[in-house]
Amino acid sequence: MRRAPLTLLAQEWIVQAIAPGDTVLDATVGNGHDTLFLAERVAPGGCVWGLDIQQAALDAARERLAAVTDLRLELRLLGHEHLSSLNTGALKAAMFNLGYLPGSSHTVVTRPDTTCRALEQVVARLRPGGRCSILAYIGHPGGAEEADAVRQWCATLEPGRFLWRAGNPPGTPDTAPRLHLIERME
Ligand SMILES: C[S@@+](CC[C@H](N)C(=O)[O-])C[C@H]1O[C@@H](n2cnc3c(N)ncnc32)[C@H](O)[C@@H]1O
Fold it and tell me: Which one of 43, 74, 151, 169 counts the least CB within 10 Å of its CB?
């Protein structure tokens, strides 16, 4: 399946921070493309946590990852805003691909308040050098508001502790999704 270029930019950001044996999080499993991407890079010996609020998403991801061996795969039917209830340990990377599950109801979407609460919990668990990517879509109802909330939340990150930059290349049209890239520096 062809991936959107911004999705690839998010993966390029993350791949530089992870290695076999690491623990990572897919905060929005969806159809499991990012889960598979993470799994293939932290195996052997790593651990992938994957969260989604739809069982169909977790089922799709489990099937997609069936061939990846020597990996601890922890898929949970749980909103990412409840991350703190899980014993994940420190994370080397986390990916958020916001919005709705392609091919499914557009009413089950990520939302500004829960997304920002999840981001807060994720950055608190990032290892030094750990990275997070957030891809926010603006084409669906509520998407632009969520993208704004994410940008405003990113702007609250403590400079010196976290690096934050917009990942959209110069000249990206205003209608494109918004990519945010975060790294914990210390
Ligand atoms: C755009 S899709 C993710 C695509 C996925 N990364 C992939 O590679 O296929 C967004 C997903 O977020 C999920 N979602 C919505 N609210 C959520 C929440 N509070 N916590 C975790 N996942 C949520 C949706 O069910 C949907 O599957």
Answer: 169
